[in-house]
User: Which sequence fits this backbone?
């Protein structure tokens, strides 16, 4: 019974983690460039159960049935599940829907790729192309972080330049003059990037960016790839699973109470 309590409790903890992930997806349903997460669960290795009290029985005992004899080995009862755990929070990098804004500084990525920005913690990567021109002329994010070029430097847009164009690979033009090029990269191993928060990713040690295979589209923004309807359905199913685990804990506790306070009296 103790084992049953731990098994049910482990399942409840797993569902709590899944609830947090779904809630975060719902909260970012309107966040530009957001990529939804998914909790990946694994089962603990099941335990093999044997009837250890029957080890000394013989073939003439009741455990012999239709030619089956346990011999010197205890008969196998079956396996006992020991619950589940959250093995990984995986990110779904599928593209979101494109929204036309008409703002020449709004950039969306079609396919693989990330913009590089400078933060107090170092270089970070994002899919959010909602950029602005700061007072000093630098191209910045909505958080005021400098967008970087291929040399890792801030990008400055000249004063009074109305005709700003961006090429498919991040080339920046003011009229016919090329001002520079965005640092537009991707990582061959998607697991190399981890979420930091504020729609930013950071690369794990040793991960090196490569030239992005996707294309940049000007005047558009990529919406979140979260689906509110499917996430709500998943949240309801998750709640029911959690509720079933809670009832299992209550049942185990009731049986434990009877075994201690009633059976124990005998």
Assistant:
């Amino acid at each position: 019974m103790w084992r049953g309590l731990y098994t049910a409790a482990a399942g409840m903890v797993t569902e709590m983690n899944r609830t947090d992930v779904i809630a975060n997806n719902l909260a970012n349903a309107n966040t530009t460039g957001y990529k939804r997460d998914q909790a990946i669960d694994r089962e603990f290795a099941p335990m093999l159960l044997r009837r250890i009290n029957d080890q000394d029985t013989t073939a003439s005992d009741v455990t012999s049935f239709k030619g089956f004899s346990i011999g010197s080995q205890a008969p196998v009862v079956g396996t006992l599940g020991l619950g589940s755990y959250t093995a990984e929070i995986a990110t779904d990098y599928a593209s979101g829907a494109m929204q036309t804004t008409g703002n020449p500084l709004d950039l969306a990525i079609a396919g693989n790729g990330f913009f590089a920005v400078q933060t107090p913690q170092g270089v970070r990567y994002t899919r959010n192309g909602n950029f602005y021109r700061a007072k000093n002329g630098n191209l910045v994010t909505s958080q005021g972080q400098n967008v970087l070029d291929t040399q890792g430097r801030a990008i400055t847009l000249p004063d009074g330049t109305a005709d700003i164009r961006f090429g498919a690979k991040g080339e920046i033009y003011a009229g016919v003059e090329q001002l520079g090029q965005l640092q537009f990269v991707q990582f061959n191993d998607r697991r190399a990037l981890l979420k930091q928060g504020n729609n930013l990713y950071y690369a794990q040690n040793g991960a090196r960016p490569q030239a992005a295979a996707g294309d940049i589209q000007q005047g558009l923004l990529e919406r979140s790839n979260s689906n509110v309807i499917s996430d709500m359905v998943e949240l309801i199913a998750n709640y029911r699973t959690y509720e079933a685990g809670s009832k299992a804990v209550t049942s185990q506790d009731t049986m434990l109470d009877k075994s201690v306070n009633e059976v124990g009296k005998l």
User: Anything to note?
Assistant: Residues 46 and 68 are 25 Å apart (CA to CA).
